[in-house]
Amino acid sequence: MRKRIVLLIAAITLALPAVAGAQAVEVAPGVLWSQMVREPGPVRINMLELDPALVHGVLSNNRIAGRERVSSMGRRVGAVAGVNGTYFGPSGDPVGVLAIDGMLLSEPVDGRSALVLGGGMASVGAIRFSGAVTINGVERLIDGVERARGLVPACGGRGGDVPTTRPNAVLTCTDSSELVLLSPKYGARPPREGGVEAVLREGTVAAVRAPGSGPVPRDGLLLTGSGDAARFLRNAALPRSRAEIRLSLTSAGRPLDLAQQTLVVGAGPRLLRGGRVAVAARAEGFAPPQAPAFYGNFVAARNPRTLAGLRADGKLLLVTVDGRRPGWSTGMTLTEAARLMRSLGARDALNLDGGGSTTMTVRGEVVNRPSDPGGERRVSNGVFALP
């Protein structure tokens, strides 16, 4: 049966949480538009309804380093429509799990929720990471991928992180003993401070070098280690040694075959579980004890939101809620966002990056009103429907 994209682009002004009564109009083949005006509020929403098999992730500038507007990403890949993806740091590094077409580009903040698409399946679940490398019969855990070693944004790392291994939205944890795997997708120079680097080509150690000796090789991988990971590389990574790398993700305790996943994108918190409102803000690190006001400002206050949800019929919903624009749209709390997704038919849903990042494009044009004074924000990655 021919795949069919159904894009429901709804600009809605409503009294929370009701959305019933919107009249859909086909404005182009396979494209529906609807509008509803209700008070108080107002709140304006755009929604895409589509087949998960058509959805792909896009990395800004085709690399980790740097940022790009959602509209630019969409035009670059010829997308039908899309939204911004997960959180990111100042340099563009994704914060939370991101895997595109089977390649792991960022490890999870341990236990945070993610949207998983691929292998004919679509789900929302907590994601965990494991990784290891074996060189000359000696194994060492891999702490992360495609990021600066020693720095763990939002914490939730693999152990030894200071001050916590629990997810924490306001902290960047540190770890003086880490092994991080970099590929050409990283797009930046590795850290110069301390440690040891091992260049890998075709599964073999090509060289061991001091940090800052050069970029990630275009035709290989780089293991960069500090502390006991540096000692491991000095002792085990002899030139021409075989190096076996294993990276894996699990969801709800079940392994995910990375090669079968077209997209794994996490942010959080989870909003719906089995059709019930289940905002997992505290469990996923969005109520940090070091910053009590964060919960009120991020979770309980009305803000722009980007949301993803799955209906019982298997359709994927990508939703943006405009906010921080008095008279245009007030935004939503995360509980209101969960109720909205339930009213739209989602059974499982999560929050993606929001605030000034919230953007939806159709045919490369922005259809919502981003909240930044300068307009559309440059972001790290996006979620798109491709033709």
Written account of the structure:
Helices cover 9% and strands 43% of the residues. It is mainly beta. The strands form 7 sheets. The protein has a 9-stranded mixed beta sheet with strand order 2-3-1-4-28-27-29-25-26, covered by helices on one side. Strands 10, 11, 12, 13, 14, 22, 23 and 24 form an 8-stranded antiparallel beta sheet that branches.
Short recap of the structure:
9% of the residues lie in helices and 43% in strands. It has helices at 70-77, 228-236, 292-300, 334-343; strands spanning 7-13, 23-28, 31-37, 44-50, 55-59, 68-69, 81-84, 87-88, 94-95, 98-100, 103-106, 113-118, 121-135, 138-141, 144-145, 151-155, 167-174, 179-182, 196-201, 204-209, 221-225, 243-251, 254-256, 261-266, 270-273, 276-277, 305-311, 316-321, 346-351, 360-362, 365-366, 378-379, 381-385.
Distance between the termini: 16 Å
Give helix % range: under 10%
Helical element count?
Answer: 4
Low-confidence segments? 1-21, 25-38
| Shape annotation | globular
Overall pLDDT confidence: 89
- Per DSSP E runs of 2 or more residues, the count of β-strands stands at 33
Report the sheet-strand fraction: 35-45%
Name the strands of the widest sheet in spatial order. 2-3-1-4-28-27-29-25-26
Tell me the structural class.
Answer: mainly beta
Radius of gyration: 21 Å
Let me know the largest β-sheet: 9 strands, mixed
